[in-house]
């Protein structure tokens, strides 16, 4: 631990200018912080910082924050505390709730020039692999923790992932570090603590190199996971619609079942949706692929759902209730049209165009009303000779039923100017070469 070589991971990301240590006050993160502070002359262009997450779950958390602040003053490292709500929801484990709250706070603190550095080490990696095995995880889960991953706008780096816990302890004692001992780390109620205190010592007694060997297995699983992702990306590139909006049922059926499952897992990850477990994935594939063409089946799992319409599969967060009587006033400002948030639907924006969208002249000084379909609307889109029932136009366009009532309709007084996702009214369309405004809906993130 005395060598700067342990931090060679940082050399792979020379564009990062802010290194933010996730500092809990425990021995691992203290060693990481101390080592970086000691060697910061090797990275004079970078700013070292430390952040303590106060989960608000223990009475001593404020005292721990004060300890962390004191250590950072001694090391001349800027420090701050972020407070989060880590109370678990019904059915959620306390560990998972705390982890989600912690990383959400870290993610919000990062920009494209910043990285969060955590003190995960080789023993953590081995424990994570065993926990994932006991949960029945596949290659992605067994890959455990990567040394580097994107987090929000920045990066998550684990520079000590190939260092044993024993080496960290030896470094801490050599340098006389003072750290916090969290009493909850001794509780066997938590799975990781039980594994760390009861199981790992027995494994190392029989197989002294168990930690190193398990961590190596995680690396092999990570390599396999990358290969599976590459195979799935090739399948997606071949069959998926632009933007990964949907998958054609007929093309998915042509793949063998293992490729189908691999394809869907990768598709859901790229859509930033939770992955169903093996049983749920097998069931939803059966239900959606075997349904008759005129059916519109829907299969859900915690945090996501998949629907079929005609020959396409769609995946999304679970739909929330929708009130078609909602409406908003949308006015331009000096810079154009400000984004308009539509709760439960997405963010409505106007993109400046040339020869497309609504005529900029027609919209000059106009106040729009944004509504939703209630039934009976008629619309005269570009390239149609006459107005038609909006319901029929949406059906002809192949827009899935669950989206039709959530498409924003743009009105000037009682005149329908645009149906976002379908088109603009012919009478108000921008002429070729003329300035226009194209209304676009940015859907809710998965």
List keywords for this structure.
five-stranded antiparallel beta sheet, globular, 446 residues, alpha+beta
Kindly describe this structure:
The structure is a single chain. α4 crosses α7 (191-206) and α8 (210-239) crosses α10. The protein has helices at 27-38, 61-75, 94-108, 122-134, 139-142, 165-174, 191-206, 210-239, 249-253, 257-270, 278-289, 360-363, 390-396, 401-404, and strands at 18-22, 47-54, 79-83, 114-117, 148-151, 154-157, 247-248, 298-301, 304-309, 312-316, 328-330, 340-342, 346-354, 358-359, 368-371, 378-379, 388-389, 409-412, 415-419, 423-424, 435-443. β18 (409-412) and β19 form a beta hairpin. It is built from 14 helices and 21 strands. The protein is globular, with a radius of gyration of 27 Å. It is of the alpha+beta class and 446 residues long.
Q: Beta-strand percentage?
A: 15-25%
Q: Given the C-alpha coordinates, what overall shape results?
A: globular
Largest sheet: 6 strands, mixed
Describe the strand arrangement of the main beta sheet, using strand numbers. Answer: 3-2-1-4-6-5
Q: Could you tell me how far the N terminus lies from the C terminus, measured between alpha carbons in angstroms?
A: 41 Å
How large, in whole angstroms, is the Cα Rg?
Answer: 27 Å
What average pLDDT do the residues reach? 91
What's the β-strand tally?
Answer: 21
Number of helices: 14
Helix/sheet category: alpha+beta
Low-confidence stretches: none
Measured as a percent range, the helix fraction is 25-40%
How is this structure best summarized?
The chain is an alpha+beta fold. 36% of the residues lie in helices and 21% in strands.
């Amino acid at each position: 631990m005395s060598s700067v070589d342990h931090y060679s991971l940082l050399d792979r990301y020379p564009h990062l200018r802010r290194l933010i240590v996730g500092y809990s006050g425990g021995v691992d993160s203290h060693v990481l912080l101390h080592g970086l502070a000691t060697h910061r002359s090797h990275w004079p262009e970078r700013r070292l910082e430390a952040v303590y997450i106060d989960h608000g779950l223990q009475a001593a958390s404020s005292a721990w924050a004060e300890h962390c602040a004191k250590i950072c003053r001694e090391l001349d490292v800027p420090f701050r505390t972020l407070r989060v709500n880590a109370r678990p929801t019904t059915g959620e484990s306390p560990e998972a709730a705390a982890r989600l709250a912690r990383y959400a706070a870290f993610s919000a603190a990062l920009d494209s020039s910043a990285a969060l550095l955590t003190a995960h080490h080789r023993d953590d990696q081995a424990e994570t692999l065993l926990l994932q095995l006991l949960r029945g995880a596949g290659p992605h889960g067994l890959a455990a923790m990567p040394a580097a991953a994107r987090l929000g706008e920045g990066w998550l780096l684990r520079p000590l992932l190939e260092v044993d816990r024993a080496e960290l302890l030896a470094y801490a004692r050599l340098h006389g570090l003072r750290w916090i001992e969290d009493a909850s780390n001794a509780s066997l109620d938590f799975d990781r603590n039980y594994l760390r205190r009861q199981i790992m010592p027995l494994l190392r007694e029989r197989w002294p190199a168990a930690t190193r060997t398990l961590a190596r297995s995680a690396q092999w699983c990570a390599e396999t996971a990358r290969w599976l992702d590459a195979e799935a990306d090739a399948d997606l590139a071949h069959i998926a619609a632009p933007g990964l909006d949907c998958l054609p049922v007929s093309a998915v059926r042509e793949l063998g079942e293992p490729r189908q499952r691999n394809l869907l897992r990768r598709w859901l990850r790229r859509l930033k949706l939770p992955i169903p477990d093996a049983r749920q994935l097998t069931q939803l594939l059966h239900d959606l692929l075997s349904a008759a063409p005129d059916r519109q089946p829907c299969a859900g799992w915690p945090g996501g759902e998949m629907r079929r319409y005609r020959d396409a599969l769609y995946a999304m967060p679970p739909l929330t209730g929708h009130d078609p009587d909602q409406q908003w006033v949308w006015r331009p400002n000096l810079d154009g049209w400000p984004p308009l948030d539509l709760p439960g639907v997405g963010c409505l924006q106007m993109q400046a165009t040339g020869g497309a969208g609504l005529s900029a002249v027609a919209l000059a000084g106009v106040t729009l009303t944004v509504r939703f379909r209630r039934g009976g609307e008629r619309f005269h889109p570009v390239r149609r000779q006459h107005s038609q029932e909006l319901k029929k136009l949406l059906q002809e366009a192949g827009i899935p039923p669950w989206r039709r009532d959530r498409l924003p309709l743009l009105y000037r007084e009682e005149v329908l100017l645009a149906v976002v996702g379908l088109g603009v009214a012919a009478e108000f369309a921008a002429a070729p070469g003329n300035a226009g405004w194209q209304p676009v809906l940015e859907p809710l993130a998965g």
